[in-house]
Amino acid sequence: MFSFSQTICKKLIKALFVILIMITLGIASGNANEIGIITSYKLNIRIKPDRNSRTIKVLNKGTSVTIISHLNEWIKVTHNGETGYIRNREIYVKILKKKLRKSTVKKKNIQITTITEDDLGDIDKAKAKAKDINREIKKQEAEVREFSKKESIVISGLNEIGRALNKSRKRVSILKKDLAVVEKQISATNRESNELIKTIRIGERYTASRMVALYKLNLLGKMHIMASADSMYDLIQRKVAVEHILYYDDLTLKNHLKNKVRLRDTLEVQKQKKNEKLSIQNTLNEQIRKMTSEKLKRSSVLKEIRNKKSLELASIQYLKLAAKDLDKTIVALQKKFKPFKKFSAYKGKLKMPVKGKIVTSFGKYNSTKFNVVNFRSGIDIKAERGKPIKSVGAGQVLYASWFKGYGNIIIVDHGDSYYTVYAHADELLKKNGDKVKTDDIIATVGDTGSMIGPSLYFEVRHHGKPINPIAWLRKS
């Protein structure tokens, strides 16, 4: 009897265990038939389905989560034992469906004898399917990582294209200056050669007439001229006059020959300068071709960024990282300069650094396209390429070079830990350590590092932290 009871008890325990497994699988397939792959760079899991609720943890791009349920614009998820809510947006999470067959257990008239080997076989199939899904998840995660890598390559490539374009522009500018110098030299040699030709022609006419006179003198002979003198004084006068004429003729002939040599040398220099001009023009044309190619590449990348959500979000993240790098650079470069006057006294009195239109504002802004909140540390002023950029106050140039995400940039230290930042410049007219006065031209407007075309990105900072530039500019 005891043995029979023990056997029944064992069967009951085994059956209950199998039922628990089936119920667990039923729940899992009912509530967790979806998984999510995080597509945002950083995504908060919140304790409640509310953007103002507390953040439980932050998930990185490519992380997979199990989806428990959907609630309007929110999804209830679990990750590593923690449960919370995330926004149900494509830009935040990619939802994948598990293709598991639902297992159901009838709640009424449960009979232990209905648990068979077939049921256990179904569980094994479900486990095998779960393994397939895990492999699919890993594959999807790998694809997300690969896509993120491609995004980074595209965005960082934009910086490299910008640098190459900036280098080409500088080279073109130098070549144009060299070409202008050579053209001036050619003009000078043209004037010199024309003057020499005129002088040589006059000299040739004079020399020809003197040659005729000398020929006649040789025919008559010097003694015949001397002998025809009326007196000794007249003889001496004639002798001096003849010697003077012969000396002048000799000098004129020598100058004439020198002018011919000078003309030959000038024409040779002119030929060299023309060859130099041709070489510069060929190099210039090649640089312009390269510059045009880089411009097209840049336009293509910018268009791709604007058209693809993931790339635009990646570019926003790229600019955030660039802003952090700029913060670190300014902190590292901070020096003590004796201020000309307390910069704080100029609040609300500064002139615009460039003539143009303010097209973006300082502070938090919401991207209507992707509903992403971001922070802008300065303002963008739309202006024509080449327009002069002026320093808003006296100070010393702390940094003047290329900076990733900003292009050509100048940072001016005004003392008292106040700094102004001027970015996207075409040409930098000041270098590190240069002192500047208010309204000094420090650069020209360009589009280096800009995503909106020719413009000036302008910041005001205090102790390295950005402050609203609008509050410092004159109202107009």
What does this structure look like?
The chain has about 475 residues and is α+β, with helices and mostly antiparallel strands. It has three domains: about 1-145, SH3 Domains (SH3 type barrels, Roll), CATH 2.30.30.40; about 160-305, Orthogonal Bundle (Helix Hairpins), CATH 1.10.287; about 335-470, Glucose Permease (Domain IIA). The protein is about 50% helix and about 20% strand. It has helices at about 1-30, 115-220, 220-225, 230-305, 310-335; strands at about 35-40, 40-45, 55-60, 65-70, 75-80, 80-85, 95, 355-360, 365, 370-375, 380, 390, 395-405, 405-415, 420-430, 435, 440-445, 455-460, 465. Strands 8, 11, 12, 13, 14, 15, 16, 17, 18 and 19 form a ten-stranded antiparallel sheet that branches. It has a five-stranded antiparallel sheet with strand order 6-5-4-1-7. The protein has a two-stranded antiparallel sheet with strand order 2-3. β14 (about 405-415) and β15 (about 420-430) form a beta hairpin. α2 (about 115-220) runs antiparallel to α4 (about 230-305), α2 (about 115-220) crosses α5 (about 310-335) and α4 (about 230-305) packs across α5 (about 310-335). The protein is elongated and about 140 Å long.
